[in-house]
Amino acid sequence: MKHRIVVLGAGYAGTNAAGRLARRLHPDDVEITLVNADDDFVERIRLHQLATGQAMRHRPLADALAGTAVRLRTARVTAVDTELRTVRLTDGEINYDTLVYALGSTAARVTGPAHHVASRPAAERLSARLRELTAGSTVLVVGGGLTGIEATTEIAEARPDLHVALAVRGGLGDWLSDKARRHLRRAVTRLAITVHEHTDVERADETGALTTTGERIPADVTVWTAGFATHPIAAETSLRVAATGQIVVDATMRSVSHPEVYAVGDAALAEGPGGKPLRMSCASGGPMAWQAADAIAARLTGRRVPHVPIRYYAQCISLGRHDGIIQMVTADDRAKPSAVVGGPAARVKELICAGAAWGIYHPTVMLPTRRRRLAEPVQASAQAPSSF
């Protein structure tokens, strides 16, 4: 029987993993199933654009998987049984011999009503709410990381008739180089954004947000971008997970507690350069997916397991459609003095975003097909011992 590989989640990490596995393993020996709640590939790094009413192209996953022999199953994951090697879905269940867990993350929990841009439905709800606002209304974005900065500047540029504010726990862009930080401050001034620095927001309500010091920041709409949280499914299994709910993996993205399970993207806690965990980002998700797929293929075909250390090169920040920052960073993601800013940075960021989606649909250009046979027949039984 064929060795069953199930990939959960079709974001950047999951789709990359499924496509790469299909090009590394012979379809006569393996059955690869990609499970996703939606039948579209969602460009999550563009959701702040969708929130301001910009059109986002629909990208059917069936088109991305055409010719790969990967099966798409459109269903929501409700539970994973790591003892029986079974995934429960809204429309039934599916068994696996090897599992790639790529369910990603959602917005961190916030007390009170607040919007976010961590999913397409959420971005669409925010878009609808912004359309309801009349001139002079106030929008508050909570969280000064990459997502918060991009959402704030996008809203301010698209709706100059609104009062847009940003609440930052530390200093605005305090992790950036001097050049990038100066440019960021010029951008928020140009867009008339009010910045509340060194402000820790405790909760949101219908009239704005309350800080930990008791200060109230009024707002007609609050957008929460202060961090991400993993889905609780992994924590409900016997997998070893971190306090964040992420699955703890080794350098090949293999679970340290269950060798038949791999985790990639935001769902995985993997050590990066300098011993620091890889951050939740598209920049980490793709390389993690490649690492996992190549390790799975190598182990199943009896080859040496490759390991290419994952490192960072730059942080890309859009500041609306025509401005941006490309902050060069060290391997462990610390800012270097050099940065590209302004229009050139916006064009580079757009090329990176477009290239990430293009790569999902044209994987053979970047990765030639070399489908190898398994080293030995693998028994496909839900209760069979690991084949590794």
Automatic annotation (TrEMBL):
InterPro entries (UniProt xref): FAD/NAD-bd_sf (IPR036188), FAD/NAD-binding_dom (IPR023753), NADH-Q_oxidoreductase (IPR051169)
GO molecular function terms listed in the Swiss-Prot or TrEMBL record: NAD(P)H dehydrogenase (quinone) activity
Alphabetized UniProt keyword annotations: FAD, Flavoprotein, Oxidoreductase
Protein transport keyword on record: no
Cofactor(s) this protein cannot do without: FAD
An example Gene Ontology biological process: aerobic electron transport chain
Statement: the UniProt record of this protein carries the keyword ATP-binding: no
Pfam families on file: Pyr_redox_2
FAD/NAD(P)-binding domain span: 4-293
Similarity annotation: Belongs to the NADH dehydrogenase family.
UniProt protein name: Oxidoreductase
Organism lineage: Bacteria, Bacillati, Actinomycetota, Actinomycetes, Micromonosporales
